[in-house]
Design a protein that fits this description.
2 domains; Immunoglobulin-like; 8 strands; alpha+beta; four-stranded mixed beta sheet
């Protein structure tokens, strides 16, 4: 029993000494643990939904952040209907290169500010709103500025918050 305890102490000490010389704690500890700096930047959004919006039906909204330039060009061309049909496969095909936050808003609802953690390498984000009517229902946003998302009766608009 004592020998087992001594072996454990030796192993723990050896690992501590080895890791102590391997650089900063950010390289040694997984990102995003409580009490440590979060490597992600924050993006803030407020949401207003018009009364009776989307024929008085809930509106699914995805906020999409892409860090791959090739994929970003593809996502920038998608209409909301296409995004919602293809999003699961896109996330599977590009692991770690696309982040998606999904909400469903109801007519008359107001929310925010909502803080979303985003990859600091990303510069742009996309909102897709899955309205019942046809249309692109897509907007691109600068991740460095907080925005107001206004979900109107048949379409939406995004404006920067000051």
């Amino acid at each position: 029993m004592a020998i087992l305890l001594i072996r454990r102490c030796v192993v723990v000490t050896a690992i501590s000494l080895l890791l102590g010389g391997c650089g900063t704690k950010d390289k040694l500890v997984p990102k995003g643990l409580p009490g440590l700096p979060n490597p992600k930047q924050k993006f803030s959004v407020q949401v207003n939904v018009s009364d009776g919006a989307n024929d008085n039906s809930p509106i699914p909204v995805d906020f999409v952040v892409v860090v791959d330039k090739k994929l970003q060009a593809e996502v920038a061309k998608l209409a909301a209907k296409d995004w919602f049909e293809r999003r699961i496969q896109i996330v599977r095909d590009f692991p770690g290169k696309v982040e998606v936050v999904s909400w469903e808003w109801v007519p008359g609802q107001h929310a925010g500010p909502i803080s979303v953690a985003v990859n600091p390498r990303a510069r742009l984000g996309y909102f897709f709103a899955n309205y019942l009517n046809g249309g692109d229902h897509r907007a691109v946003v600068d991740l460095k500025s907080a925005v107001l998302l206004n979900l109107g009766p048949q379409d939406f608009a995004v404006q920067p918050l000051r």
